[in-house]
Design brief:
single chain, 401 residues, alpha+beta, Ribosomal Protein S5, domain 2, Alpha-Beta Plaits, 2 domains, six-stranded mixed β-sheet, four-stranded antiparallel β-sheet, 9 helices, 21% strand, binds adenosine-5'-triphosphate, binds ligand DP6
Length: 401
């Protein structure tokens, strides 16, 4: 008996030009284009196994070992349904292929980091879901074509279909067929780009991105300025900065766009606050770090950005990352040792402050205010794994325990 199954992993992406606002909430069409950096799956990933079988009675998804209900008309059902449609088209065009598009599917997925905590789990999760079904169905679809479907799971997920530096073009069609992800540059173009995720809280957040951005669309006047005037120019600046590997512009635009997104959150009625005091202290640290570097005749060396939560992501080039980790450890002691997945500190981190940094600008935070640091770098797109080794489903198609 043939088993129709595939296992794929997909990466997280963190936007440097933020998506915030939908013009169509069902199709998930955004009010502005956005741009992100894909992070390395060696450190942060969703892994998903999908199987189609005639004997299955219903579609099931297990997320981190627990069944996640697939609601009729919901985002999961839409993505799975769209993928089945693509398979049907493929079967119609290739009559010798097995007719598996009508079978129910069992899907199991794990995130190797906290889910729904503002660490972009919906992005890697829906990208892995769509990619695993594409591998199971042997679809010839391009990443941009698959991004059209991942987008309907969670907007930011469409950008996780590519590695490197990725734009989500907002498009203009009401059908959404031109609202898709495209590669701006592959990871190999700027492999020195690294990221430090500072986990300020890994608890579920108060206002979800979905409901928060809808409230912003309905009530913020500042959002209209952001959509019309601010983002279009920044998209051009950012694409140029990436192509030219101009870190100073990359960093300045990244920080300004994070600020602009949090400003429109504040301009929402009632206001939405995603950053907390720890987040603001991280901003002050990076601002002072860059000031000291520029004052000494050096470059801008770090960029902060915050999604819909208090966690910071600091982008920096490889050459400066050790200094930045030491600095963050000095002001935000975690109380646990730094995991160091890339082996930067063979004999442990010595926290410290670079020369010229004014230590009076920031107070040392309470231990554990930043609970964890995840050091990673720009990474590649979804990976098809060896299903015989990596499968998350048992032989009978139930969840593997
Ligand atoms: N591996 C996965 N497979 C399928 N769906 C997933 C997966 N991981 C997360 N999701 C979906 O995404 C939801 C979490 O999305 P949510 O936007 O609340 O959090 P987040 O993505 O971690 O935060 P943010 O988007 O603000 O960075 C989960 O409840 C689940 O529905
Ligand atoms: C702040 C953001 O991270 C918002 C992400 O929003 P989501 O993609 O999670 O929202 P939905 O489309 O409603 O699922 C910015 C970004 O990733 O561009």
């Amino acid at each position: 008996m043939t088993v129709y199954q595939a296992t794929v992993s997909a990466p997280v992406n963190i936007a440097v030009i933020k998506y915030w606002g939908k013009r169509d909430t069902k199709l998930i069409l955004p009010t502005n284009s956005s741009l992100s950096v894909t992070l390395d799956q060696d450190h942060l990933r969703s892994t998903t196994t999908s199987r189609a079988d005639e004997s299955f009675e219903r579609d099931i998804l297990w997320l981190n070992g627990k069944e996640d209900p697939i609601k009729e008309g919901g985002r999961l059902a839409t993505c799975i349904g769209e993928m089945k449609k693509l398979r049907k088209q493929y079967e119609d065009a290739n009559p010798n292929e097995p007719k598996i598009s009508s079978y129910r599917v069992h899907i199991a997925s794990n995130n190797n980091f906290p889910t729904a905590a503002g660490l972009a789990s919906s992005a890697s999760g829906f990208a892995a879901l769509v990619s695993s079904l594409a591998a199971l169905y042997k679809l010839p679809s391009s990443p941009s074509e698959l991004s059209l479907i991942a987008r309907q799971g969670s907007g930011s997920a469409c950008r996780s279909l590519f590695g490197g530096f990725v734009a989500w073009e907002m498009g203009s069609a009401t059908s959404g067929t031109d609202s898709l992800a495209v590669e701006v540059a592959p990871r190999e173009h700027w492999p020195e780009m690294q990221a430090l995720v500072c986990v300020v809280s890994d608890k579920k957040k108060g206002t979800s991105s979905t409901s928060g951005m809808q409230r912003t669309v309905e009530t913020s006047t500042l959002l209209q300025h952001r959509i019309r005037e601010v983002v279009p120019k920044r998209m051009e600046q950012m694409i140029r900065a990436i192509k030219d590997k101009d870190f100073t512009t990359f960093a300045e635009v990244t920080m300004r766009d994070s600020n602009s997104f949090h400003a429109v959150a504040l301009d929402t009625d009632p206001p939405i606050f995603y950053m907390n005091d720890v987040s603001r202290a991280i901003i002050a640290t990076i601002v002072e770090y860059n000031r000291a570097s520029v004052a000494a005749g050096g470059p801008v060396k770090a960029a902060y950005t915050f999604d819909a939560g208090p966690n910071a992501v600091i982008y920096a080039l490889e050459k400066d990352m050790a200094e930045i980790i030491r600095l963050v450890c000095y002001f935000f002691p975690q109380g646990v040792s730094f995991e160091d997945p890339m082996g930067v500190f063979p004999s442990g981190v010595q926290s410290g402050v670079p020369e010229g940094f004014d230590v009076n600008v920031v107070k040392v935070a309470e231990t554990g205010s930043v609970s964890r640091l995840i050091h990673t770098r720009v990474g590649g797109g979804p990976r098809v794994l060896d299903d015989s080794k990596e499968t998350l489903l048992a032989q009978d198609g139930s969840l593997k325990v």
